[in-house]
Amino acid sequence: MDRIVVRGNGPLSGTIPISGAKNAALPLMIASLLTDEPLELTNVPRLADVVSLEAILANHGVDSLIKGKRFGESGMSGRTMQLQAKEIVDTNAPYELVRKMRASFWVIGPLLARCGEARVSLPGGCAIGTRPVDLFLESLRALGAQIDVDGGYVNAKAPSGGLKGGSYTFPKVSVGATHVMLMAASLASGTTTIKNAAREPEVVDVADCLNAMGAKISGHGTSTITVEGVTSLKGASHAVLPDRIETGTFAACVAMTGGDVMLKGADGSLLRAALDVLERTGTTVEETEGGIRIARNGGVIQPVDIVTDPFPGFPTDLQAQFMSLLTRADGVSHVKETIFENRFMHVQELARLGANIAIDGQTATITGVNRLSGAPVMATDLRASMSLVIAGLVADGETEVNRVYHLDRGFEKLEEKLSAVGADIERIGSD
Ligand code: EPZ
Question: Which residue from 28, 252, 281, 351 puts its CA 20 to 30 A from 189's CA?
Fold first, then answer.
């Protein structure tokens, strides 16, 4: 298995191009199931998760074609993908496929809306928490679906005549269940109202794409979304929005090492809460037309308190990376995780590098240390892996991050992007 080796190498400087967002690209690809016409996506990040989802969608009859040059040939820009589901050949999503990627459960929405039925394996637990699917089932029931769970599978059936518009108030904000309800309601008859909907930029991106495909969605980006159902959707071309988590991650890298880096193509409005926290740590954040400049020249990292929350709050997907930054702060910081119950798996590994972190329930107390020292570490999810890379950027000696496949799921060409701004980071193949 590949490993990534990082050695502390001083401040970073230069430019890092920001890729398209993984968490928008995945539901956008799934939206291709809603029409028999081609859906063209541009700025698709080249990630292992995108490739896995292509295989999963192929099982349902989606042809995908990657146009243009491969990543290595076209610099750091994303690629263009054309997806077409002329015919849905299978409405079953088996366990072998769904267990590889939780987001593949989301095919339940478009399959049910287009074909009137779907049989999708329950995704099971994952490293960051139990992650149930009750909200998906309840919101689809609000559209008239008959749903039962049997033998590890969710069997969903639309009423004769198809899904019907309805109203649903999410008891808890869910990004995935909002995506699914949006897709399903787009092809339902009548009007659907989604209350306490997720406001994440990726939900807005998916709604914009669905509208380009002929859907009638309004209110996306607020907590009440209205969908006027249509009888069919058509093809469209849509550019995936920039990855706010990749942006915040590289910003944390620069805040950690010091230096001056332009995050090209980044959009500050997608991660205001995280940029505010960075400024409070003493990092300079300058938003420009072409991206965001992050700089820290000398001075200590100020301690801060962070609470994760649904958008527009501080994203849980940046929690591990910012905690890593705070391990070197000049004082005591607190990080409270409110989205997932088990997303502190990186703490033990950061401790192996010399971090001083105590956990009490959902809150971590981080007492800054002067020095981190390199060690072999491993992590259980992609954001946690990245927190170890960030620590490795300033640790003495060598930090070896194992289970690199986690990073490949969500960070495009990580080593290339970081070495281009002066980091000492390399991938070591298994043989
Ligand atoms: C999305 O996951 C993201 N994944 C996650 O990013 C992200 O951490 C999460 O949203 C929160 O922002 C993708 O977009 C592919 P949720 P999702 O449903 O949709 C509970 C990463 O690192 N819940 O908003 O699965 C759930 O357990 C990943 O890129 C229920 O209780 O998250 C959690 O506590 C990891 N019942 C909370 O809601 C349900 O039916 C929010 O989860 C559904 C969710």
Answer: 28
Choice from 131, 179, 204, 345 to test ligand 1 binding pocket (greatest atom count within 8 A of CB): 131
**Model-level pTM?**
0.96
Q: b/e per residue, 354-368, with b = 16+ CB within 10 A?
A: bbebeeeebebebeb
Q: Are 258 and 298 in contact (CB under 8 A)?
A: yes
Is the pLDDT at 146 greater than 80? The verdict is yes
The protein residue whose alpha carbon is closest to atom 30 in ligand 1 is 132
Position 9 pLDDT exceeds 80: yes
> Does 125 sit in the ligand 1 pocket, CB within 6 Å?
no
User: What is the model's pLDDT at position 71?
Assistant: 39
CB 121, CB 45: distance < 8 Å: no
The mean per-residue pLDDT over the stretch 153-170 comes to: 97
Residue-level pLDDT at 251: 98
Q: Per the residue annotation, which of 115, 126, 209, 253 is the catalytic one?
A: 126
Crossing angle of helices 201-212 and 175-186, in 10° steps, is 10
Kindly state the tokens that stand for 317.
Answer: 């997907």
311-325 burial string, b = 16+ CB within 10 Å, else e? bebbbbbbbbbbbbb
Which spans in 59-107 are helix H?
95-98
More confident residue, 79 or 213: 213
| CA separation for the pair 265, 277 (Å, rounded) | 21
- The whole-number pLDDT of residue 128 equals 63
